[in-house]
């Protein structure tokens, strides 16, 4: 029986080799090299340093070090890290890992068969090609060392890809909102795992994510592969499942004993405790041109009766034009201005055709008009995104809830606050309600316990019954990841860098010169206010 794919074929027949069989492709002198090298380390663990003394052993150790130090052209940072770990590993070991005095080890053949099945895990077998080990020519120490290191290097590449390393920098390579990193295992740990493994195939499988949803997606993906075992182009469903598997490779290994999981394309939030959901609710996410970013951070504060600091993008694109027309939005929503050092300023006395709103801080005091409602959940990052209440509950009736400026609006925020403060502070529901009603304004309650907040982006989800649910690729991230996995890097539309400082798309002096009448200004501000209100969860 043979595994066939579009890259190579690898025999699955038993490959244990005797010394006599090895002599057909290797010389007796070479066997002496290996036997003498191994003889000095047979009583030592695999990763212990070898005491290399004979000329043959020293020659082989030197060839192993030289082979381990080789790098491909245009090597990536991760490939260089792999190389450094590999050099240290063989320097310490001094002997081959996969070639023994009786030939190429059965472990090497087992490993090769598992590498050939990489497609079963959504990986590309072409990345893990090995020569046919049964006929590999290793007639001198240099060829032996090159083969041994080639097997090791290929296994290390597999470990890196199993943890999402094919897309090393999602934020740079795909879209700035994808603030994720491959959850790579340290190269030295990969080598230690391989060297100590009794079953190298099991070791390879163990490098993949342990998240239950990853395995559920994989089983659904396997069901979409050709039943005859022949490789071919993946169908559309298999590609969607493969892409979602890939994005799980970027998730933290430990999501948290208690954590909040916001799946953006699903417009749903779920709180998990010890692996089980304890609360689910609808959320509103960012508009298509003002996306909610994809990242994870620990919850730092629950803020009751919060004050709103207006994001710079809204200041530049919405408030500044309003100020140039007379400042209707400032009056309508009770917004206040202060300098960066905290000194209050009267916005009416500033010439906004000459001054820049980015020199100031704009805030809204807590109260019935607050765009944040009664509670905010802060998990600081460069994205200036948080979760919060909203007065406009009508938003949650929409099927596609891409309505905000990027923050997440929560339909039942007080229940979420109760759960977070129970876990993070030991408070009961009565205390939370009392503090929300009559406690201090802008009351920042710092968590005593780390509770991760995950903003995730999964367009496929497998329920407990094994049924796959698909969600719309609202921001195009699924498409970008799929294109990357298919090697179509030149087709990826990275979009704008949302972290770039906002720039006005108008001339302040020109806008001020065309300042409308008071009635026209009110009408214009009302229109802009409606737009911002829809985005922020308020009639703003």
Give a quick rundown of the structure:
37% of the residues lie in helices and 15% in strands.
Description:
This protein is 37% helix and 15% strand. It is elongated and about 85 Å long. The protein is built from 18 helices and 21 strands. The strands form five sheets. Strands 5, 6, 7, 8, 9, 14, 15, 16, 17, 18 and 19 form an eleven-stranded mixed beta sheet that branches. Strands 10-13-11-12 form a four-stranded antiparallel beta sheet. By secondary structure, it is an alpha+beta fold. Helix 2 (28-39) packs across helix 3 (55-68) and helix 12 (312-325) packs antiparallel against helix 18. The longest helix has 22 residues, at 141-162. It has helices spanning 19-22, 28-39, 55-68, 77-93, 106-116, 141-162, 170-173, 187-196, 200-205, 212-223, 236-248, 312-325, 328-332, 413-425, 429-438, 477-485, 508-513, 518-536; strands at residues 2-4, 9-11, 99-100, 103-104, 258-263, 268-273, 276-286, 295-298, 301-304, 308-309, 335-339, 344-345, 360-364, 375-378, 387-388, 402-404, 408-410, 443-446, 452-456, 460-462, 468-470. Among the domains are: 2-211, no CATH class; 310-356 and 513-540, no CATH class.
